[in-house]
Design a protein that fits this description.
Chain C: Keywords: Membrane, Transmembrane, Transmembrane helix. The structure holds seven protein chains of seven kinds. Chain F is mostly helical. Chain F has helices at residues 2-22, 26-46, 50-83. The longest helix of chain F has 34 residues, at 50-83. Classes of the chains: A mainly alpha, B mainly alpha, C mainly alpha, D mainly alpha, E mainly alpha, F mainly alpha, G mainly alpha.
Chain lengths: 103, 197, 86, 290, 223, 89, 226
């Protein structure tokens, strides 16, 4: 169970960091952002893929930290990036799992 | 009727005992159609009614055999291994009870229920914990009732007539005190006057 | 020999009659009458206990019936005296 | 791994996961109502934040209970974690834990002396009715599986398939309980906004922190028990998906339904419980359930 | 079913003649919680209850005499001990007696208050508690007649007959009434609208725990 | 002999019971209650429990006393109420 | 040992009678609106309980009835007292609406000259108390308590004797302790069973009798002459 606790802690820490960071960046009142932020999307994809598919506690923990960082941004930011990251991670997970099952 | 109105009726405390009584009555009536029969394999079995009286035994309906203080009587508890001196009380009779049993054969109940005897065995020994609870129930409800009556329902300090009487007495008292004070005043003044002169 | 079952069934009869009288008898809107009618049922129960040879229970029932009646009458009197409508 | 470490880890997991799920719940409700809503991590930050706030004690409180009850609340759900995820012991003990939780809800309302807390306390008594569907659900689980031990229920399910297929109405009853315990639920009469925050109104500072802490654990444990006894042996991902789905569903229901008046809420739960009870009993005795 | 499937391993027994108290993890948990609460009740002071005044903005304090609070504390502590006992008892009739004791104490705790709505509810609850003697004792007696025993350890090994089911249903109704859950909730809820929260909590605590324990007992009897 | 006494006892109890139910005046009811009690004592004697009969015989007057006291008091309260004009019946 | 045939054949009529009496009582409660009447009718429900319990027809059944009776008595006392309190509180909070001219919150004295009140009670009370002491236990307590009630009723003194009540409460508390000690002694040291038997029996007698006697003191306020 220890690994799950580590994942949860890193994810929460990442979210908090992301929140702090995005408040520092954007001080204005709520706006629904339509722009797609590419660097954050890359971070998100990297995070979710690492988190789901690495199979290593430390790598997964880092992955969840990154994923949490994007997902935890203040409302209106980081939604699309998270969605893209999550979808790609699931696809990668399924692709990786299939051969494993066959073996 | 709309179900909401029905639910609102259930929220009034006054209707609850009646609702409870109604549902209890329904279950009791359902009980009439359930096949009921006494299981003959019971604990603490007693002989058929009037059998012992007709035999003319001195301690009529409660004779379960056994010699006082020597041989345990014939009773049948759930866990005999938990009761070491089982049946000894069944055979025991206090001196007073011995005396009564020697003068008349018709006082079996009283003889047997004076300390010792079958029912005492059950009440104090094999099922003693029940009796603790029952006497506590009695004690608690008497505590409640007597507390209420001493402090409220019988408390004459709240009674109007009594208060009126008290007020009257208090007025009288204060009048008397006032007159005393006045008299003392007059006396003191007289003394003062005398000294001045 | 006396017939135990005669008194047994009579006791049951008396208990049922007494309870019906308590519930719907004539003049039961007066609490005093209602309390009186419970006595009939309790005599019926006494007979049944006698037939079962529960003699000590019978003694206790006799004593408690008197005391319960006393308590109920006390409540009735106090409430009437107060003029409370319950 | 030794037992103490296991308990500690499970409690931390329960707290973090519960907080995040509650945050998700809040977010879902906000999105349904076309609001942006706070970030998901907000619930967790809140609970942590309260531990560092200044604590004030109202003048009217009954000191021992006012403070003690909060610790009892936290303790009782830690026991819940121990009995549930850690030891997989008897379901009846979890039932007892839930009963104590109701008591705590009641007493933290009344021990503050505030009129709002008092009202919440009275409503907590009313809502003791939610115990009954829970009891019925547990009894049906017992009737089908023949055991009260959570571990044995899991093994039963791994052989016979998840219980949700055989006694769906019992699962519905249990789900009602979860719905009742979720924030802003139509049945959450103790936390009606008429009563400010219900029984928590007068609890400030670290006391409120403990309350939020145990609420998160409670949410986690309830979801865990529901998933475990009705959905059979699951792995971590299964639990994760299940919990997120249930949080979504309850959030959606809560966002779209109004709060019921206290006695209607109680009677609705009882009525649904009774219908489910009768239905499941019928299913069992007519042999639909093997 | 026996104790082990329901409450966990049997940790020990206390033998008092025919009445044997059983300790399982389940009953011990309930017992310990009740005793803990009882200790807290004995130690704690009551809160000052504040009530909002109708039509005005100020609050009024509900005053309760010191003597009355002492009485309440006494009854509450006894109630805690009684319900703790009900958690570990292993005898059907003994359990019903514990319930009767808890019922009368619940009424007693609120009997001296001034609010008439509270007294009204206490009286109505008292009526139910009195009627409960029929389903509780009667149900136990019917089970006794059908099986010939009152000990839960023996009862749990016996198959259920329709008569036992009738007795169990009667007992269930008695338990529902005595502990005031729905649909009989209204009789008890109003009783909590008074000051003295430490003493009042035991009313709720005892009734909830008795339900929890009753579930176990009914399962033992029926299966 | 025993059969005869049984019949007498039952007759007394029946008369007493229906008397208590159907008599109008409270004092008549008390008398009828005593008749019923007498029948009951007879049954107890028939069952040969003399000590119980002794107690039943003592409890009879006791309850009669309670009845009389309360009925007199209630009557007084009711007449008072009618005299002061607040009760119409 | 098995239950005799007589009891087995008596079981069905007895339990049916119990169910019917209970049904009548509960239905009467269900259709009645006035609370005092419901209180009186619960007595009938209690009688039904005695039927059902006694139908088992063993010594155990009798041992279960005995305390059940006392419990009924106790609950009736407490609940009637609460009813009176409630009505008094109602009047107290709104005197104009409820209290009419000829009514009074507190019991008033009334004049009644009964020969029997001066002569009979002392004798009957003496016999009852003596017999109760001989019986001991629950039954003895109830019997002796009846005697004390009668004695207290016949005394001509008004005003609640709080000191005496306190004394009685103290006596019954001590008696309860005696009973507990006796009970524990039975299990801890069975060789002293005679001592513990007497402790238990006499403790219970004192307890029940003193508590029941208290009713007499309360009653004296209500139905007694000046």
């Amino acid at each position: 169970m220890l690994d799950y606790m580590i994942y949860l802690i890193t994810f929460a820490a990442g979210s908090i960091l992301g929140l702090l960071y995005s408040y520092k960046q954007h001080g204005e009142p709520f706006v629904a952002v339509t722009k797609f932020n590419v660097p954050f999307a890359i971070v998100s994809i990297a995070g979710w893929v690492l988190g789901f598919c690495s199979g290593n506690v430390i790598l997964s923990a880092i992955g969840f930290l990154l994923a949490g960082f994007v997902m935890g941004e203040r409302p209106g930011y980081g939604r699309k990036e998270t969605a893209v990251g999550l979808i790609i991670a699931i696809i990668v997970y399924v692709l990786l799992k299939r051969p494993l099952c066959m073996m | 009727m709309r179900i909401g109105a029905l639910w609102n009726k259930l929220a009034k405390p006054k209707n609850i005992p009646r609702l409870f009584a109604f549902s209890l009555g329904i279950i009791l009536i359902i009980g009439l159609i359930v096949p009921l029969a006494l299981n003959p394999d019971q604990l603490y079995v007693r002989p058929a009614p009037q059998e012992q009286v007709d035999e003319g035994l001195a301690i009529a309906p409660y004779d379960r055999g056994g010699v006082p203080l020597k041989e345990p009587g014939n009773i049948d508890p759930q866990y005999p291994e938990n009761a070491e001196s089982l049946g000894m009380i069944t055979g025991y009779m206090s001196p007073l009870a011995e005396f009564v049993s020697s003068i008349s054969p018709y006082f079996g109940t009283s003889i047997y229920s004076s300390p010792g005897g079958l029912i005492d065995e059950i009440l104090y020994y094999t099922r003693g914990f029940d009796t603790i609870l029952e006497s506590s129930i009695l004690m608690m409800s008497f505590i409640i009732a007597s507390w209420l009556s001493i402090n409220y329902t019988m408390n004459r300090k709240n009674d109007e007539d009594e208060i009126k009487k008290d007020v009257k007495k208090a007025i009288d008292d204060s009048n008397r005190v006032a007159s005393h004070v006045k008299a003392n005043d007059a006396k003191a003044r007289a003394k003062q006057l005398r000294r001045d002169n | 020999m006396i017939s135990v079952s005669l008194f047994f069934y009579f006791g049951i009869f008396l208990a049922i009659v007494g309870s019906i009288a308590t519930a719907w008898g004539p003049g039961v809107s007066d609490p005093v009458v209602r309390t009186f009618n419970t006595e009939i049922a309790s005599i019926g129960v006494c007979l049944v206990l006698l037939c079962y040879n529960h003699v000590l229970a019978l003694l206790t029932l006799l004593a408690t019936t008197v005391i319960i009646t006393l308590i109920l009458f006390r409540a009735i009197i106090r409430l009437e005296e107060m003029g409370a409508d319950v | 791994m030794n037992l103490m470490a296991e308990i500690l880890i499970q409690v931390i997991i329960a707290f973090l996961a519960g907080s995040l799920l509650l945050g998700l719940h809040r977010k879902v409700m906000a999105r349904v109502q076309k609001r942006p809503g706070p970030p998901i991590v907000q619930q967790l930050i809140h609970s942590l934040k309260f531990f560092f706030k200044e604590t004030a004690f109202p003048k009217t409180v009954s000191k021992v209970f006012y403070i003690g009850i909060v610790f009892i609340l936290a303790l009782i759900w830690v026991v819940g974690v121990i009995v549930g995820p850690v030891a997989k012991d008897s379901l009846l003990i979890l039932f007892g834990v839930y009963a104590v939780y109701k008591i705590v809800e009641h007493n933290s309302g009344s021990s503050s002396g505030s009129p709002y807390g008092k009202l919440s306390c009275v409503r907590a008594v009313l809502s003791a009715a939610t115990e009954l569907p829970l009891f019925a659900a547990i009894v049906f689980v017992y009737m089908v599986t023949g055991t009260m031990n959570i571990g044995e229920i899991i093994t039963y399910q791994s052989v016979h398939g998840p219980l949700i297929y055989s006694i769906p109405l019992a699962a519905l009853m249990f789900f009602m309980l979860i719905l009742t315990k979720s924030p802003y639920s139509p049945f959450a009469i103790t936390k009606d906004k008429v009563l400010i925050s219900g029984f928590e109104t007068e609890h400030f500072g670290f006391l409120r922190g403990f309350m939020l802490f145990s609420e998160a654990i409670a949410w986690y444990v309830l979801l865990w028990v529901f998933l475990t006894i009705f959905f059979g042996p699951l792995n971590a991902v299964g639990y994760l998906i299940g919990m997120i789905v249930i949080s979504f569903v309850t959030g959606f229901i809560n966002a779209t339904t109004p709060l019921l008046s206290p006695n209607h809420s109680v009677m609705t739960q009882i009525t649904i419980g009774a219908i489910c009870f009768a239905g499941t009993a019928l299913m069992i005795f007519t042999g639909v359930v093997a | 079913m026996d104790f082990v499937t329901l409450g966990g391993n049997l940790l020990g027994t206390i033998r008092l003649g025919d009445i044997v108290l059983y300790l399982t993890p389940f009953s011990l948990f309930l017992f310990a919680v009740l005793l803990g609460f009882t200790v807290l009740i004995g130690l704690s002071k009551p809160e000052t209850q504040v009530e909002a005044t109708m039509h005005y903005l100020n609050n009024t304090e509900v005053k309760v005499g010191q003597k009355e609070l002492k009485q309440r504390r006494f009854l509450a502590v006894i109630c805690g001990i009684a319900s703790a006992g009900a958690m570990i008892t292993g005898d059907l009739f003994n359990f019903t007696l514990f319930m009767a004791l808890v019922g009368i104490l619940n009424i007693g705790i609120v009997s001296a208050v001034k609010q008439t709505s509270v007294l009204d509810s206490a009286f109505n609850y008292g009526l139910i508690a009195m009627m409960c003697s029929l389903p509780l004792f009667g149900g136990a007696a019917i089970i006794l007649a059908a099986t010939g025993t009152l000990s839960l350890a023996v009862l749990s090994q016996m198959p259920a007959s329709p008569m036992v089911v009738l007795g169990a249903v009667l007992m269930l109704l008695g338990i529902l009434g005595e502990s005031g859950v729905a649909p009989f909730f209204a009789s008890k809820a109003e009783m909590f609208r008074t000051a003295g929260s430490p003493y009042i909590v035991i009313i709720h605590l005892s009734s909830l725990f008795i339900i929890v324990r009753a579930v176990e007992i009914l399962l033992l009897v029926l299966w | 002999m025993e059969f005869l006494v049984s019949i007498i006892a039952i007759a007394l109890m029946v008369i007493g019971a229906f008397g208590v139910i159907f008599m109008k005046k409270p004092l008549d009811k008390i008398i009828m209650f005593d008749i019923m009690d007498a029948g009951f004592v007879l049954v107890v004697v028939l069952f040969k429990y003399l000590d119980v009969a002794l107690f039943a015989a003592l409890a009879g007057p006791l309850s009669t006393l309670v009845f009389i006291l309360s009925i007199v008091k209630i009557k007084e309260i009711r007449t008072d109420k009618i005299a002061s004009g607040e009760a119409n019946d | 040992m098995f239950v005799p045939q007589a009891f087995i054949s008596m079981y069905l009529p007895a339990i049916y009678a119990g169910l019917i009496v209970g049904f009548i009582g509960t239905m009467a409660i269900a259709i009645n609106r006035r609370e005092l009447h419901i209180l009186i009718l619960t007595d009938i429900v209690g009688l039904a309980m005695i039927f059902v319990v006694s139908a088992v027809g063993t010594d155990l059944a009798e041992a279960l009835i005995l305390p059940g009776l006392v419990v009924e008595l106790a609950e009736t006392l407490a609940i009637s007292e609460i009813l009176i309190t409630r009505e008094m509180r109602k009047i107290e909070q709104d005197p104009r609406a409820n209290l009419a001219k000829s009514s009074s919150i507190f019991p008033q004295a009334f004049s009644l000259d009964m020969e029997i009140m001066t002569t009979a009670p002392n004798f009957i009370a003496l016999v009852l108390i003596g017999y109760g002491i001989f019986l001991t236990g629950f039954t003895g307590g109830a019997v002796a308590g009846g005697g004390i009630v009668l004695y207290a009723l016949s005394k001509k003194a008004r005003g609640l004797p709080v000191l005496m009540l306190d004394g009685i409460a103290g006596v019954s508390g001590i008696a309860w302790c005696l009973w507990i000690i006796g009970f524990l002694l039975f299990f801890v040291a069975p060789q002293y069973w005679l001592l513990s038997l007497f402790l238990a029996a006499c403790g219970l007698l004192l307890k029940v009798a003193s508590k029941v006697g208290l009713i007499g003191l309360l009653m004296r306020e209500d139905i007694d002459n000046e």
